[in-house]
Amino acid sequence: MTPGSLFAGSCTHATMKRESRTTCQRLLASLLVACCLGWVPSWALAAAAHVQSLKGIVTARAVDGTTRTLTRNAELFKGDEIATEDHAAVTLLFTDGTRVTLAKRTRFAIDAYSFRDTAETEPRDAPEEETFSGRVFGGIARFATGLLGKRRPAGFKVNTAVATIGIRGTFFVCEVQGESATVVLLEPEVAGAANEIEVSNSYGSVSISQAGYGTEIPDAHSPPSPPRPMRIETMTRMLRSVQTIQRVRIPRAPRR
Prior knowledge:
- This protein is of the alpha+beta class.
- It is built from three helices and 17 strands.
- The chain folds into two domains: 1-38; 42-241, Sandwich (Jelly Rolls).
- The chain is globular and about 40 Å long.
- It starts with a helix and ends in a 15-residue tail after the last helix.
Protein backbone atom coordinates (compact mmCIF):
# COMPACT_ATOMS: atom_id res chain seq x y z
CA MET A 1 0.00 0.00 0.00
CA THR A 2 1.43 3.36 -1.02
CA PRO A 3 1.71 6.37 1.29
CA GLY A 4 -0.81 8.14 -0.92
CA SER A 5 -3.43 5.43 -0.46
CA LEU A 6 -2.83 5.42 3.30
CA PHE A 7 -3.31 9.18 3.40
CA ALA A 8 -6.50 8.95 1.31
CA GLY A 9 -7.91 6.21 3.54
CA SER A 10 -7.14 8.23 6.64
CA CYS A 11 -8.87 11.28 5.18
CA THR A 12 -11.92 9.23 4.23
CA HIS A 13 -12.15 7.74 7.74
CA ALA A 14 -11.85 11.17 9.32
CA THR A 15 -14.51 12.56 7.01
CA MET A 16 -16.91 9.72 7.89
CA LYS A 17 -16.34 10.35 11.60
CA ARG A 18 -17.07 14.06 11.16
CA GLU A 19 -20.25 13.34 9.17
CA SER A 20 -21.42 10.81 11.76
CA ARG A 21 -20.75 13.27 14.57
CA THR A 22 -22.58 16.02 12.65
CA THR A 23 -25.58 13.75 12.04
CA CYS A 24 -25.79 12.86 15.74
CA GLN A 25 -25.54 16.53 16.69
CA ARG A 26 -28.35 17.42 14.29
CA LEU A 27 -30.52 14.61 15.65
CA LEU A 28 -29.94 15.69 19.23
CA ALA A 29 -30.69 19.30 18.30
CA SER A 30 -33.93 18.24 16.62
CA LEU A 31 -34.99 16.27 19.68
CA LEU A 32 -34.15 19.21 21.94
CA VAL A 33 -36.22 21.58 19.80
CA ALA A 34 -39.13 19.10 19.78
CA CYS A 35 -39.01 18.81 23.57
CA CYS A 36 -38.82 22.60 24.00
CA LEU A 37 -41.88 22.98 21.77
CA GLY A 38 -43.73 20.46 23.86
CA TRP A 39 -44.05 17.89 21.08
CA VAL A 40 -43.47 14.27 21.97
CA PRO A 41 -44.86 11.42 19.83
CA SER A 42 -47.63 9.39 21.43
CA TRP A 43 -45.59 6.20 21.37
CA ALA A 44 -43.00 7.85 23.61
CA LEU A 45 -45.50 8.56 26.37
CA ALA A 46 -47.03 6.33 28.99
CA ALA A 47 -50.74 5.78 28.40
CA ALA A 48 -52.97 8.06 30.49
CA ALA A 49 -56.14 6.03 29.94
CA HIS A 50 -57.75 3.28 27.91
CA VAL A 51 -61.19 2.75 26.39
CA GLN A 52 -63.32 0.88 28.91
CA SER A 53 -66.45 0.69 26.76
CA LEU A 54 -67.82 2.31 23.64
CA LYS A 55 -70.49 2.20 21.00
CA GLY A 56 -70.49 3.77 17.56
CA ILE A 57 -67.54 5.53 15.93
CA VAL A 58 -65.06 7.27 18.23
CA THR A 59 -61.76 8.77 17.08
CA ALA A 60 -58.66 10.24 18.73
CA ARG A 61 -56.31 12.80 17.21
CA ALA A 62 -52.76 12.80 18.56
CA VAL A 63 -50.51 15.83 19.05
CA ASP A 64 -48.74 15.03 15.77
CA GLY A 65 -52.04 15.36 13.88
CA THR A 66 -52.61 11.66 13.17
CA THR A 67 -56.12 10.34 13.73
CA ARG A 68 -57.07 6.81 14.74
CA THR A 69 -60.37 5.03 15.28
CA LEU A 70 -60.72 3.75 18.82
CA THR A 71 -61.69 0.25 19.88
CA ARG A 72 -62.22 -1.30 23.28
CA ASN A 73 -58.99 -1.27 25.38
CA ALA A 74 -57.32 1.24 23.02
CA GLU A 75 -54.84 3.49 24.83
CA LEU A 76 -55.11 7.28 25.17
CA PHE A 77 -52.26 9.70 25.79
CA LYS A 78 -51.66 13.22 27.00
CA GLY A 79 -52.51 15.59 24.17
CA ASP A 80 -55.08 13.30 22.55
CA GLU A 81 -58.36 14.86 21.42
CA ILE A 82 -61.25 12.41 21.48
CA ALA A 83 -64.36 12.88 19.34
CA THR A 84 -67.60 10.91 19.19
CA GLU A 85 -69.86 10.80 16.16
CA ASP A 86 -73.66 10.49 15.96
CA HIS A 87 -75.10 7.61 18.01
CA ALA A 88 -71.72 7.09 19.68
CA ALA A 89 -70.50 7.17 23.29
CA VAL A 90 -67.31 6.16 25.05
CA THR A 91 -66.00 5.69 28.59
CA LEU A 92 -62.31 6.38 29.23
CA LEU A 93 -60.71 4.80 32.30
CA PHE A 94 -57.61 6.67 33.50
CA THR A 95 -54.77 4.99 35.37
CA ASP A 96 -55.85 6.60 38.67
CA GLY A 97 -59.39 5.23 38.30
CA THR A 98 -61.00 8.42 36.97
CA ARG A 99 -63.76 7.68 34.45
CA VAL A 100 -64.80 10.12 31.73
CA THR A 101 -67.84 9.27 29.63
CA LEU A 102 -68.52 11.22 26.43
CA ALA A 103 -71.90 11.41 24.74
CA LYS A 104 -72.54 11.63 21.01
CA ARG A 105 -71.06 14.60 19.13
CA THR A 106 -68.68 15.43 21.98
CA ARG A 107 -65.06 16.60 21.79
CA PHE A 108 -62.74 16.22 24.77
CA ALA A 109 -58.98 16.72 25.08
CA ILE A 110 -56.49 15.37 27.63
CA ASP A 111 -54.52 18.59 28.15
CA ALA A 112 -52.35 17.29 31.00
CA TYR A 113 -52.14 14.10 33.04
CA SER A 114 -49.64 12.82 35.57
CA PHE A 115 -50.27 10.17 38.21
CA ARG A 116 -47.96 8.17 40.46
CA ASP A 117 -49.34 4.65 40.65
CA THR A 118 -49.02 3.78 44.33
CA ALA A 119 -51.32 2.50 47.05
CA GLU A 120 -51.21 5.81 48.92
CA THR A 121 -54.55 7.61 49.05
CA GLU A 122 -54.04 10.35 51.61
CA PRO A 123 -53.84 13.94 50.26
CA ARG A 124 -50.51 14.53 52.04
CA ASP A 125 -48.97 11.67 50.03
CA ALA A 126 -49.73 13.19 46.64
CA PRO A 127 -46.74 14.74 44.86
CA GLU A 128 -47.15 18.24 43.45
CA GLU A 129 -46.75 17.08 39.86
CA GLU A 130 -49.86 14.86 39.96
CA THR A 131 -52.47 16.52 37.78
CA PHE A 132 -55.51 16.00 35.58
CA SER A 133 -56.50 18.71 33.13
CA GLY A 134 -59.17 18.03 30.53
CA ARG A 135 -61.07 20.25 28.13
CA VAL A 136 -64.64 19.83 26.86
CA PHE A 137 -65.00 21.68 23.55
CA GLY A 138 -68.62 20.70 23.01
CA GLY A 139 -71.20 18.05 23.88
CA ILE A 140 -71.88 16.24 27.14
CA ALA A 141 -69.30 14.63 29.43
CA ARG A 142 -69.67 12.85 32.76
CA PHE A 143 -66.78 12.66 35.24
CA ALA A 144 -66.21 10.27 38.15
CA THR A 145 -62.92 11.12 39.85
CA GLY A 146 -60.44 8.49 40.99
CA LEU A 147 -57.43 8.46 43.30
CA LEU A 148 -55.98 11.68 41.96
CA GLY A 149 -59.13 13.55 42.94
CA LYS A 150 -58.84 12.15 46.46
CA ARG A 151 -55.10 12.65 46.93
CA ARG A 152 -54.72 16.02 45.24
CA PRO A 153 -58.09 17.61 44.38
CA ALA A 154 -56.38 20.94 43.61
CA GLY A 155 -54.68 19.21 40.67
CA PHE A 156 -57.95 18.16 39.00
CA LYS A 157 -59.46 20.65 36.53
CA VAL A 158 -61.93 20.44 33.67
CA ASN A 159 -62.00 23.43 31.32
CA THR A 160 -64.68 24.70 28.97
CA ALA A 161 -64.85 27.80 26.80
CA VAL A 162 -66.70 29.71 29.54
CA ALA A 163 -65.62 28.24 32.91
CA THR A 164 -63.26 25.96 34.80
CA ILE A 165 -64.54 23.14 37.02
CA GLY A 166 -62.54 22.22 40.11
CA ILE A 167 -63.38 19.28 42.33
CA ARG A 168 -63.12 17.83 45.79
CA GLY A 169 -63.47 14.14 44.94
CA THR A 170 -66.73 14.05 43.08
CA PHE A 171 -69.17 12.96 40.37
CA PHE A 172 -70.59 15.49 37.91
CA VAL A 173 -71.81 16.03 34.36
CA CYS A 174 -71.39 19.04 32.10
CA GLU A 175 -72.88 20.11 28.80
CA VAL A 176 -71.15 22.61 26.50
CA GLN A 177 -73.00 24.27 23.64
CA GLY A 178 -71.00 26.93 21.86
CA GLU A 179 -70.17 29.59 24.45
CA SER A 180 -72.60 28.33 27.09
CA ALA A 181 -72.30 25.53 29.63
CA THR A 182 -74.38 23.69 32.23
CA VAL A 183 -72.72 21.82 35.11
CA VAL A 184 -74.61 19.49 37.48
CA LEU A 185 -73.34 17.74 40.60
CA LEU A 186 -74.44 14.09 40.77
CA GLU A 187 -74.84 11.72 43.69
CA PRO A 188 -71.52 10.15 44.70
CA GLU A 189 -71.04 6.54 43.69
CA VAL A 190 -69.88 5.73 47.22
CA ALA A 191 -72.15 6.82 50.08
CA GLY A 192 -70.52 9.42 52.28
CA ALA A 193 -67.76 10.25 49.81
CA ALA A 194 -66.65 13.87 49.37
CA ASN A 195 -68.79 15.46 46.70
CA GLU A 196 -68.34 19.11 45.75
CA ILE A 197 -67.42 21.16 42.71
CA GLU A 198 -66.38 24.75 42.14
CA VAL A 199 -67.28 26.39 38.84
CA SER A 200 -65.44 29.61 38.09
CA ASN A 201 -64.42 32.10 35.43
CA SER A 202 -63.14 35.68 35.33
CA TYR A 203 -66.54 37.02 36.39
CA GLY A 204 -67.24 34.89 39.46
CA SER A 205 -67.40 31.44 41.01
CA VAL A 206 -69.90 29.18 42.76
CA SER A 207 -69.52 26.06 44.91
CA ILE A 208 -72.01 23.22 44.63
CA SER A 209 -72.19 20.57 47.35
CA GLN A 210 -75.72 19.21 46.97
CA ALA A 211 -76.38 16.49 44.41
CA GLY A 212 -78.93 17.45 41.80
CA TYR A 213 -77.96 21.11 41.94
CA GLY A 214 -76.19 22.85 39.11
CA THR A 215 -75.13 26.10 37.54
CA GLU A 216 -75.40 27.65 34.10
CA ILE A 217 -72.99 29.95 32.28
CA PRO A 218 -74.89 31.61 29.41
CA ASP A 219 -71.88 33.14 27.66
CA ALA A 220 -68.19 33.95 27.95
CA HIS A 221 -68.90 37.27 29.67
CA SER A 222 -71.19 36.12 32.48
CA PRO A 223 -70.51 34.56 35.88
CA PRO A 224 -71.86 31.09 36.77
CA SER A 225 -75.45 31.34 37.98
CA PRO A 226 -76.22 30.69 41.67
CA PRO A 227 -76.63 26.94 42.34
CA ARG A 228 -80.18 25.73 41.93
CA PRO A 229 -82.03 22.42 41.67
CA MET A 230 -81.87 21.19 38.09
CA ARG A 231 -84.98 19.95 36.36
CA ILE A 232 -85.25 16.18 36.36
CA GLU A 233 -85.86 16.31 32.59
CA THR A 234 -82.53 18.07 32.10
CA MET A 235 -80.61 15.54 34.20
CA THR A 236 -82.38 12.61 32.56
CA ARG A 237 -81.50 13.87 29.08
CA MET A 238 -77.87 14.53 30.00
CA LEU A 239 -77.33 11.19 31.75
CA ARG A 240 -79.06 9.08 29.14
CA SER A 241 -76.88 10.66 26.50
CA VAL A 242 -73.72 9.32 28.18
CA GLN A 243 -74.83 5.70 28.26
CA THR A 244 -72.37 3.37 26.59
CA ILE A 245 -73.01 -0.31 27.27
CA GLN A 246 -73.85 0.33 30.90
CA ARG A 247 -77.06 1.41 32.53
CA VAL A 248 -77.17 4.90 33.99
CA ARG A 249 -78.98 5.57 37.23
CA ILE A 250 -81.28 8.56 36.88
CA PRO A 251 -81.36 10.55 40.13
CA ARG A 252 -84.50 11.64 41.89
CA ALA A 253 -85.53 15.24 41.67
CA PRO A 254 -83.72 17.22 44.40
CA ARG A 255 -85.74 18.55 47.29
CA ARG A 256 -86.22 22.28 47.27
